Amino acid sequence: MKFETYEGNLQDLHADVLVLIMDSQNELFQLEDEALQERVAGAQAQFTGGKLSRELTFAPKGLDNIDTVVIYHSDLEKNYGFWENIKTFAARGLRLGAETARPRVAFALNSEAGLEHVGKVVEGALLGSYSFEKYRQKPRKLFEDCVAVIWTQSAEKAREQIERAEILCHATNATRDLVNESAAVITPAALVRKAQDLAASHNLQVEVWDQARLTQERMVGLLAVGAGSEHPPFMVSLSYQPEAPSDVHLVLLGKGVTFDTGGISIKPADKMHLMRGDMAGAAAVLGAMEIIGQLKPSIRVTALVVAAENSPDGKSMRPGDILSYRNGKSVHVENTDAEGRLILADGLIHAGDIGATHIVDVATLTGAAVRALGYSFTGLMGNNRTLINAVTRAGGNHGEAYWKLPLPAEYKEYIKSSVADINNIGGPVAGATTAALFLQEFVPERTAWAHLDIAPTFWKEKPWKYFGEGASGVAARTLADLAVNWAENTAR
Questions:
Q1: Model pTM score
Q2: Angle, nearest 10°, between helix axes 280-295 and 188-202?
Q3: Which of 27, 59, 301, 421 would you call most buried, defined as having the most Cβ atoms within 10 angstroms of its Cβ?
Q4: Radius of gyration (Cα) for the chain, nearest Å?
C-alpha cells in the first residue's frame, strides 16, 4: 500500500473512492461542491435520526474525477471513541475499494480537525489491511495495489503524521507476525534473533543469556520451564539509552513461552494450537522497542524477554517440585501449567539487578483474566498508582483498553504453601489477582511495577473494529507510548 498527499480542490482530486467520515462534534472535511454538500447534509440527518445503520454509498453527480463516495458517521459505532471510529471507518473504506477493484481511495481530511487526525486514518488503513499470508499456496494480496490519498490542508504536516503512524503500525504488524507464526519457527532462539536484528537496525544494545549463563546466574524458573524441550531457554535484554542522562529506567518484561503444552500438567487439546501465542508478551515488548528505537524517548528503556518452551518430557519439571530463586524465595510447583509466572519471576529479579526504577511486565498469564474481562480489556494490576494511570493513558491513545483489578493483601492466603514460601497457583477464585500477587513477591523493593495480563486481548477470534481474525499486537503501541510520552503520561 502506498500513501499520497493532496492539497488541491475537489475537482482535481482523482480517486476511485472518496471516504467522508462524519461526527457530530468534529468536522474532518470541507466541501466546495454544492451538490455534494447537500448530499452530505441529508446523510447527517439520516445518520443522527437513526435511519441509516450502515455506510451511505453513492456516485456523485458532476464529479467525473470521483467514482464513488462513501460516508461513515460516528453514530454507526456508539460503543467506541472518535479516534477508534476513525480507524475503523478508514479500514472499512479501504477494504471497500480493494474488494470492488477500486484501489485508489481518498480520505477527506482537509479541515483543521482533519489535519489533526491524519495519523489515525493511516493507522486504521495499515492495521486494518494486515493479514498473515505466509503459508497460503496463493497468498491474498487484496491491498497490494491500493493507494490511500490523504486530502489535506498541509501535505508537509500530513506527511509527518503518516511517517509516525507507519512506524507504529509496522512494529504492531511485526508483533502480530510473531504471534501468528508457527511455534516450530518461533522458538526461544528465534526470539533472540529477533532482538538481535532490532539491535542492529535501531542502534540498541543487546545481551543474551544462554542456558549455561542462566545456570550460572541461578535463573531457576527459566531452567525448570524449559527443561523438557529440545529448544533451550534464553533471556535476552534489549536496551535503549537516550543522549542525555535519565533518572528513569523503564524495564519492559515480556513472557516468551513459545509454545505451552502445560508440561506434565498437560492442557486439553481444544485450542491448544493457540498456545503458540503464549509469547505475545515477549512479542509486544520487542514491538515496543522497534518503535522506541526510532522515536527515541528521553528516558532509558530496557526490554527483557524471558523465553522458554513448556513441553512434557522425562526431564520436565514435575508437580511437587520446589524452586529456590536467587532472591531467596522458594516456590512449590503445584501445577506445571502455571509456568509463565515462574519465568517472569526470573525477569523481575534481573530487572532489579540492572537498576529498574519502573517495571511493566506483559504476559498472556491467566484464563481468569479472560473470564473476568471478556475479550476487549487487558487486566492491569500493580503497586504504583501513577504508573498504572500512565499505562492506562498510553493505551487510551491507541485504543487499547486496560482495566484495573485489585491486589488485596488478604488474597496472599491463596498462594501459601505448606512446603515452601509460596505456591505457584492459588485457589479456585481470583486467578488473575493471585497470579499477580505471586509476581509481586519478586518485584524489587521500592520499584514501581505494573502487570498487564493480555490473555483477554492478544487474539481475536473474529474481526473486531479494524482488526481481522488472529493476533492483535496488543500492548506494543501502549508500551512505546508510555516511554515516548513519559512526562505527559506520568504527569497526573
A1: 0.97
A2: 10
A3: 301
A4: 24
- What is the SS3 assignment for 237? strand
- Catalytic: which of 92, 164, 341, 477? 341
Could you report the per-residue pLDDT of 270-305, keeping only the tens digit for each?
989 999 999 999 999 999 999 999 999 999 999 999
User: Quick check: 426 and 435 in contact, CB under 8 A?
Assistant: yes
DSSP letter at 357 equals S
Count of other CB atoms within 10 angstroms of residue 230? 9
Which residues, in sequence order, are bridge partners of residue 250? Answer: 301, 358
Bridging pattern class, strands 234-240 and 205-209: antiparallel
Active site residue 271: no
- Element (DSSP H or E) covering residue 72: strand 66-73
Q: Which residues pair with 361 in a beta bridge?
A: 253, 451
- Of all helices (H) and strands (E), which one includes residue 207? strand 205-209
Are 100 and 79 in contact by the 8 Å Cβ rule? The answer is no
The single-letter code of the amino acid at 34 is E
Contact indicator for 95, 17 with CB cutoff of 8 Å: no
Mean pLDDT computed over every residue of the chain: 97
| Catalytic site includes residue 39 | no
Question: What does the pLDDT look like over 385-407, one tens digit per residue?
Answer: 999 999 999 999 999 999 999 99
**Catalytic choice (157, 159, 267, 329):** 267
Q: What angle do CA 315, 316, 322 make, to 5 degrees?
A: 110
Burial of residue 211 (number of CB atoms within 10 Å: 0-12, 13-18, 19+): middle
The answer on pLDDT for 492 being more than 80 is no
Write down all domains in the chain, each with its CATH number in brackets.
2-170 (3.40.220.10), 186-489 (3.40.630.10)
